[in-house]
Amino acid sequence: MSMSSKLRQTTIGRSIWRTPDAVTERDRAAKHWASFLLHIYPVKVRRDELSFRYSWFLGVISLVLFASLFVSGVYLMFFYVPSPATAYGDIENLQTEVAFGQFIRNVHRWSAHLMVLAVAAHMSRVFYRGAYKPPREFNWVIGVILLVMTLLMSFTGYLLPWDQLAYWAITVGSSMAAFVPWAGDQAQQTLLAGDSVGSATLVRFYVLHVFVLPGTMVMLVMFHLWRWRKDSMLSHPEGGDHE
Description:
Elements: H1 3-9, H2 11-16, H3 25-34, H4 52-55, H5 58-77, H6 87-96, H7 101-129, H8 137-158, H9 164-177, H10 184-192, H11 199-234
């Protein structure tokens, strides 16, 4: 008997590892159900759904880019204050004085651009395969919401450098929002936190960019993944090739 098996059979070991060794399929299923992270997923999935040919891993690529945005964004937050008096200077200081500042900012910027492309390509691939059809209609709607939020993440980050390009980009974008039927004026007021781009606009965009949108996206992505796995099991007949 190995040392790890002996440890698992002790009182302390049994209190930590609550499931038996994965010897049989039932044991593997029990370990799956007992896992905090895995129990929401089905025990088995079709083998072809884990292949590159099935999805081109566009969803995984989108998640990796989102993680890159999160990590690089946290680093940038240490050196940035959302104030019109200091925002541009903070960006200049980040690029010239902070260790790896220029590199991390470029990683953040390119991850944002590539994530928009990856999410759009993922949605196109899902549409091409007809994976929005029953019973996956609701998960398709969640995917569309995530695409819109990805675009909003990119849009809200545009103002943060507080330079001329950012100022006029937000001015034009918010003016376009004013043409939304029935709610255009309210949408523009909500974005700008007033009648024009100012300090309140910068704070609002900063809070949306670093807290509201990312937090909401994390919850929606978790639900999206759960529904994808569950719906995949419902959409195939019994006895298919599983992993």
